[in-house]
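Posting this for the archive.
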Amino acid sequence: TVNDNLVSYIQADCTNKVALDEALLLIKQKYRKIDGVIHSPLTLQDHPIFFFFLDMIDKVTLSKIDGTLNALNVFRQEPLDFFLIFSSINSFLPQPGQAAYSSACSFQDACQHMEYPCAIKIVNWGFWSEIGAVAGQDFRDRFFKQGLFSINPIQAWEDIDLFLASDVSQIA
């Protein structure tokens, strides 16, 4: 729960507009009203840029760029309180092997400036300590050498509550 309200997790392929339309229909059938959207796409392809092929770049950018635009368009007509996009600290601190991911996250960051019926908010996450795609020890060691520390999941969700209640449009 968030603020004593029910929160539901619904997964859909954001690169597939039909899947998003179906998810919207499912939500509206079950709840009638959507208060907000948390859009959290992730596709990592860690490779040095000179080993990247277009299909690898497409895999990463499709979810972050096309998926974000699809989600924004599908939910545009809903009376949302917020549209929250999970981006990454890679927008500011690109990591080796993640050029496509970093550029796609920068695109997401720019979405907060779009004209949209509700607030578009951006969270530039670092890496989570216990869960997620980069929760392994090798990633922890790499980030620690850069002076980056992991995020505690419980604290992260408390911070999200504060962020959504604020006038701030982006946090990292």
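The longest helix spans residues 54-74. The chain has five helices and four strands.
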